[in-house]
């Protein structure tokens, strides 16, 4: 199987990224891997799409740091890769990382990915639906019962009115963002700084304001899904609790949070079940559901992470399960060459 990962930039990849773990596992299972940046596509005169990227130079790596070091080594030369000849293209770039310096990059990359998919390559997650999901507004298209009460606006008066209606407690964050960046938890003692928080959030675009869920103080759950359903290996869910003991309201690992494996409770599994039909319909093959109590705070469909942590803690081969599922899709595609690739996304 020939597999290309589309990322932001090889230079900014880190050894704890899920992409790197998946790439290393695919190589260990005998597959050919490439990493290409969203800014390095080439639309050829014959209508095919290529890309400049790098391939790992070995077929065995000691750990994730080892393969990343090989990819980032200056002696590992950039190659031109015929992406339309690949079996699978996994879209793993984070649009939030491009807001400042390359705001054009995510949209352009997804349009290239749509062309690639139209030429018969299995592209995951579905690039057409990812185009619709480039910020948190996408989550508002999921059933209301799973979502916290939400306001999206740039108007300060509207935001203040909403927070007051929530009893003075809410969460405000940029509509475009990830990793806990720019997240403010509004509580009773935040009144003096409220204007500053709102201004900081709306400075570069819309703000999303959500009701504060008291259980957030205990952290949140990240439940990873594959083919629209919770990812499970040997009875163990790819699910972990993220929490922050420093008093910071954010549990994201990139914001200094900690992590421990968790068994999803009945509420989490109910939320995943309700979200499943929409995930499948939209071709969101691999996603991360962020859950607090009986509500889902967000759905990460661009770069859901945590596979490496889940594997390191449990010893379960979650990345291998994903690669084997991709092998299954490639077999289906060969047996049903006329089936639209979009129909294969969540089979």
From TrEMBL:
Listed GO CC annotations: cytoplasm
PROSITE patterns: ATP_GRASP
Pfam families hit by this protein: GSH-S_ATP, GSH-S_N
Gene Ontology molecular functions: ATP binding; glutathione synthase activity; metal ion binding
InterPro entries, per the entry: ATP-grasp (IPR011761), ATP_grasp_subdomain_1 (IPR013815), GSHS_ATP-bd (IPR004218), GSHS_N (IPR004215), PreATP-grasp_dom_sf (IPR016185)
Domain ATP-grasp per the UniProt entry, residue ranges: 137-327
Record flagged with keyword tRNA processing: no
Keywords: ATP-binding, Nucleotide-binding
Name of the featured protein: ATP-grasp domain-containing protein
Protein species of origin: Parvularcula maris
């Amino acid at each position: 199987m020939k597999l290309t990962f589309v990322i932001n930039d090889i230079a900014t990849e880190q050894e704890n990224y899920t992409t790197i773990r998946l790439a290393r596992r695919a190589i260990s299972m005998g597959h050919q891997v490439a990493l290409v940046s969203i800014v390095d596509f080439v639309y050829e005169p014959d209508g095919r799409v290529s890309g400049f990227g790098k391939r790992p130079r070995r077929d065995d790596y000691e750990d994730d740091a080892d393969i990343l070091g090989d990819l980032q080594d200056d002696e590992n030369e950039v190659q031109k890769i015929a992406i339309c000849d690949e079996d699978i293209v996994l879209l793993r770039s984070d649009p939030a990382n491009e807001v400042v310096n390359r705001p054009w990059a995510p949209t352009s990359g997804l349009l290239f990915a749509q062309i690639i998919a139209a030429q018969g390559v299995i592209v995951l997650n579905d690039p057409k639906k990812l185009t619709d999901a480039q910020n948190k507004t996408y989550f508002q298209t999921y059933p209301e019962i799973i979502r916290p009460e939400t306001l999206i606006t740039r108007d300060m008066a509207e935001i203040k009115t909403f927070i007051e209606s929530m009893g003075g407690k809410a969460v405000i964050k940029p509509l475009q963002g990830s990793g806990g960046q720019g997240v403010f938890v509004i509580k009773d003692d935040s009144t003096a700084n409220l204007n500053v928080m709102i201004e900081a959030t709306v400075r570069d675009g819309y703000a999303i304001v959500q009701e504060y869920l008291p259980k957030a103080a205990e952290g949140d759950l990240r439940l990873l899904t594959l083919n629209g359903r919770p990812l499970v290996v040997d009875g163990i869910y790819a699910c972990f609790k993220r929490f922050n003991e420093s008093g910071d309201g954010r549990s994201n690992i990139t914001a200094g949070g900690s992590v421990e494996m968790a068994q999803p409770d009945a509420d989490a599994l109910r939320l995943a079940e309700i979200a499943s039909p929409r995930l499948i319909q939209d071709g969101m093959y691999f996603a991360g559901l962020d859950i607090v109590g009986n509500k889902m705070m967000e759905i990460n469909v661009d770069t859901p992470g945590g596979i490496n942590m889940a594997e390191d803690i449990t010893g379960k081969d979650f990345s291998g399960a994903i690669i084997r599922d991709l092998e299954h899709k490639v077999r289906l595609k060969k047996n049903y060459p006329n089936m639209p690739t979009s129909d294969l996304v969540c089979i």
